[in-house]
Write a structure and sequence with these properties.
Oligomer: single chain
Strand content: under 5%
Number of domains: 1
Largest sheet: none
Radius of gyration: 18 Å
Helix content: 55-70%
Number of helices: 7
Order of helices and strands: HHHHHHH
CATH architecture: Up-down Bundle
Distance between the termini: 48 Å
CATH topology: Ferritin
Length: 233
Amino acid sequence: MLGDVLLDRGIENNLSHAPAEVFEVWRNRESIEIEAAIIFKQLGRDLQTLYGKDDLTALLSLKSSDDELRHARRCQEILSFNDKKDYPAFTPDFKIQFGPQYLTDKQRVLYMSLGVCCITETLSTALLIEMHERAFSGIIRDTIHEILVDEVDHARIGWAELNRQAQNENISWLKEYLPTLVKEAFSSDIAPMLKPNQDLSIWGILSPKDARPIMEETLEKVIYPGLEKYGIL
């Protein structure tokens, strides 16, 4: 039952009266988590193809897929407090294509690792830290905390794969794709926040004006320095 997983029911008493935008953003988050589950499963299987079924990074990626599905369920719990709208069924894209078609399987794994883990998951971690600071206690804050803890590990998968491939070959070719991957990451993280025109931070939602500086600082101080040593910057 929902109540069994809550540490503090604080905000639940008012969640059913939250602005409609709150549920729209969390609905969007649910879809993002489901698609992330598909992505990590694909990455995990590709890693197993390259390195074997017992490869640690591959297994961590497959576990991350399960994590993302759990996150989606937590989003659904938040959405259950909204009795004013029936959401249409979400149909995930099971044929997500990463990078140009001419990439080899090994290159595509590296491309995914950079875009999905090193960039997107690292940026997400930074945003979640701020969201956790601002959110009311209860299901919103507990959900953010749960996602945050997992996102840290998800980001590490990408850095581990970059480091592995860099041991034996030059991976600076990824530099060509960095601007596109950063742009896509900003779009996926900020786009769900564009509609709300009020301060909804207590509901775990940052405005674009608050989110963008956090992401830019994370790029400059965390992501770019990490990529520079691989010649990707």
